[in-house]
Amino acid sequence: MDDVFSNFDLVLKAFLLTVELFVVSGVLSLLIGTALAAMRVGPVAVLSRAGALYVTLMRNTPLLIVFVFATFGLPKLDVQLPFFVKGTIALTLYTSAFVCEAVRSGINSVPLGQVEAARATGLTFTQTMSQVVLPQALRAVIPPLASTMIALLKNTSVGAVFGLFEATARMRYFSNNNASDRPMIFLTFALGYVILVELVSAGAFGLERRGRVAAR
Amino acid sequence: MSTVLFDTPGPRTRRRHRLYSLLGSLVLVAAVGVVLWRLQATGQLAYRLWEPFVTPSYVRALLVEGLLKTLQMAFSSVLLAVVFGLLLGVAKLSDHGWVRRPAFLVVEFFRAVPVLLLMFFIFLTYGAGQGGIGSYWSVVIALTLYNGAVLAEVFRAGILAVPPGQAEAAYALGLRKSQVMTSVLLPQGAKIMLPAIISQCVVALKDTTLGYAILAPGLTEVGKAIYQQFSNQLQAAIVMAALFITVNLALSAIATRVQRRLVGEQKALAVPAIGHDSGSAV
Fold first, then answer.
1. Of B65, B233, B198, which is closest to residue A162 (Cα–Cα)?
2. Could you give the C-alpha distances from A86 to A24, A83, A153, in angstroms and in order?
3. Pairwise CA distance, residues B206 & A58, whole Å
């Protein structure tokens, strides 16, 4: 354990990389996933089918295989990128499919009667969207998006296998060097992940509470 | 088609949508074209690189030592996870705080920790070297702990989904707590839980690939051996992905059928997710 505590800056640096991977691929997959969801619920059949195909393929492929694509496959196509970018690409491709599903289910959860009522009271399309549909859809979307983001946070660990020295790779490094302290080392790093997961879910809970309306 | 978001289109809107369809198709075709052109330009479409996947001995290795082993790992960990999850799920519903609270902590811990971190720890501490349990069991145990924690929530939600009148009636007949659980609540809850358990198989199956990191047997190991020999990483990844997608789609289809059979068109059991998105596979 002395090795871990005397090199605690390495632990923090590893978790910093985990957080960086999480934030960068999280923001990108929120953007791409929302665009995909717009394609899927939109009226253009071609785009909707293409979105559905992408989501089905990605959701059923293991993340590790997506990483193999990004890390070993891209160089074969003469695309040379640093490890961080390749890891971000893999995580973003994978997570945006799940973001798409979360957003789509949120939009679909708004009852048709809400829109009909809004139209019946004479609201225009823009008003219907901005005053009635989107506020309800955004609220419904927070819990599933939060669990997608937490899954992404844990999925950054796969980067350890593909040249990224983030928290999981750092735990392997310390475990290799300090055979007798392995349980404590594991618990230290696990605690780091637990704290990060709790932060994300606390953030989501806060957002959810801020947006909460009187119980229906 | 009319959904929440837009009205049934009129003639002018339909014309506009046709234009969008055309533009969308052009963009998609162009994207596929660029990918194919890159593949061609870098020689990735050469038959030599695809040949192993139509050679009988390699196909057999992929299917028997690869896919079969992977399925075996996934199903044994799901079976063990059902036992572990059942214990935890029932413990979380216990009337005694000293049973409930540790169960809660165990579930939250294993759901928040990445499976790979758990796998490295188990493999390095108990798996590697002489007398260790080996990489196969390291994968199975890591997946059991994680999926068990997820299934604990499924079981808890399934038991709570049984109408309370059932338990009240059972108590009124004079059944004891354990009898109410085993002969009234669990059999009825099982119906609701089964589809969720099958969906969890998809998650477990995808997570077996993490065994790649600790040199566990399975599809990824065979795939790696092939791409190291032929230097066809891209092709191997495509073939492996295709195999996983096929099996996972079959599993999802089974889950949907079971759901229709047992529960009807009612909504699938949704588990309030911390750490994992519910019902579907991440």
1. B233
2. 12, 5, 16
3. 11
Cβ contacts (< 8 Å) between A72 and chain B: which residues?
227, 233-234, 237
> What tens digit of pLDDT does each residue of B176-233 get?
999 999 999 999 988 888 888 888 889 999 999 999 999 889 999 999 999 999 989 9
pTM score, whole prediction: 0.88
Tell me how close the Cα of A56 comes to any Cα of chain B, in angstroms. Answer: 8
Let me know how many helices (H) and strands (E) chain B has, helices first: 12, 0
**Chain B CB contacts of A59 below 8 Å:** 280-281
Token pair 């049973």 in the structure block, residue: B99
Q: Are B206 and A63 in contact (CB under 8 A)?
A: yes
CA-based nearest residue to A47, from B35, B12, B16, B17: B17
What are B118-158's pLDDT values in tens digits?
Answer: 999 999 988 877 778 889 999 999 999 999 999 999 999 99
Helix (H, G, I), strand (E, B) or coil at A81: coil
The ipTM estimated for the assembled molecules is 0.89
Residue B128 CB: number of other CB atoms within 10 A?
16
Please report the pLDDT score of residue B275 as a whole number: 39
Q: Residue A194: which of B5, B109, B205 has the nearest Cβ?
A: B109
Task: Check CB contact of B126 with chain A, cutoff 8 Å.
Answer: no
**What Å distances lie between residue A10 and A5, A166, B114, CA to CA?**
9, 10, 19
**Distance in angstroms (rounded) separating the CA atoms of residues A209 and B20:** 39
Q: How far is B76 from chain A (nearest CA, A)?
A: 19
Please name the helix (run of DSSP H) or strand (run of DSSP E) that holds residue B98, with its range, or none: helix B97-112
Shortest distance, CA B83 to any CA of chain A (angstroms): 24
For the CA atoms of B160, B166, B170, B172, the dihedral, rounded to the nearest 10 degrees, stands at 110
